[in-house]
Amino acid sequence: MNLNATLFTQFVVFFILGWFTMKFVWPPLMNALDERAAKIADGLAAADRGKAEIASAEQRAQAQLVAARDEGQKLIGDAEKRAQTMIEEAKKTASDEAARIIAAAKSDAEQQITRARDELRIQVATLAVTCAEQILRREVNAAAHADLLNRLHAEL
Fold it and tell me: Which of 20, 33, 110, 121 could disulfide-link to 156, CB 3.0 to 4.6 Å?
């Protein structure tokens, strides 16, 4: 075996194997690597889009949270205003009721005073007649002296 021929044959086989590899093995391998790179790039782009969507969703959520908080504060303010209005109305109603009760009490007191005065006048008239009887030592007829008693009653 000739060393040169073996070496030459090995070179030829090596180049044929290189050519075969470059022609038939390398393109599918490169396509598979390119596809894998494209999938990785798509995955990274999707991840970036997901991050952007998450950030956008967080901003929308914060905006909604702020809006909800503002609406809650507005509702609380409205409720406080309504409560204050109700309190003022209750105070007004209570003062009106108190004034009505006071007026009724004054009217009742005036009526009682008038009744007490009338009763007192009657008692004074009766007492005056009794005193007159005692002074005159005789009986005074109330029916006969009704006019006198009425004038006495009017004067008191």
Answer: 121
